[in-house]
């Protein structure tokens, strides 16, 4: 296989400014736009040998390749976010040629247009609340328990400390979510992160996304800092501003519940906290070329 395919990052309104010349996308490619039906798709020309159906399926099982691709995908979406409000597509969305991209823009014109109008001028902020692991109480003089009764007393202290930390974190999560929901136009509460996959310390009790007008972002960040940074038993993590991934589906009713203790999230949270790979959670498709 020696031909080229079209890797699509996002759908945007026609750009008033060109993409940055130094911007690079997946596999070191230079992104460009394909315009049709009053919309533009931002694409890269990628090698069929890597992105055709079978090699792509294999690559999606390679965590190192997937992380590099997710970070490159996100770099393009971040650059678009500085220019406009993009509608990001799923990781590894691939078409055979420009005509296939144009057909998708034609078929999705009304839906894409409605979403872009709804999200125009808005960004996504992510907030996570963790209960910090409770330190084990120090034993007197560093000595081993003198009796079984002393051992059980220490164990009760440890359990009580963990339960108190969890209760404090849950209360702060509820308070923070209510306050931030009042600041935002829309919210999504995602399942809690699995600590074995995310490798983040503590129990994740709130994992939420907030849709905020860009001009109100400073006030939103200040609200997070005001409410979230003062309890030693709780860690609050703020990420963003992102393109509004969590709000980009026209048929997703969303979920606006409060913090909880749900257990599992899919694989993309394994890919780190500092580069948007986790934005692509549940977004790696089945490797089909459209």
From TrEMBL:
GO BP term, example: gas vesicle organization
Skewed-composition ranges (Basic and acidic residues)? 261-290
Q: Where in the cell is it found?
A: Gas vesicle
Q: Quick one: where is this thing mainly located? A: other
Q: Which Pfam families match?
A: GvpL_GvpF
Can you quote a single GO CC term?
gas vesicle
Q: Where is this region: Disordered?
A: 243-290
Task: Tell me which UniProt keywords the record has, alphabetically.
Answer: Gas vesicle
- Family to which the UniProt record says this protein belongs: Belongs to the gas vesicle GvpF/GvpL family.
- Indicate what this protein is called per its UniProt record: Gas vesicle protein
Please report the organism this UniProt entry assigns to the protein.
Answer: Streptomyces albus
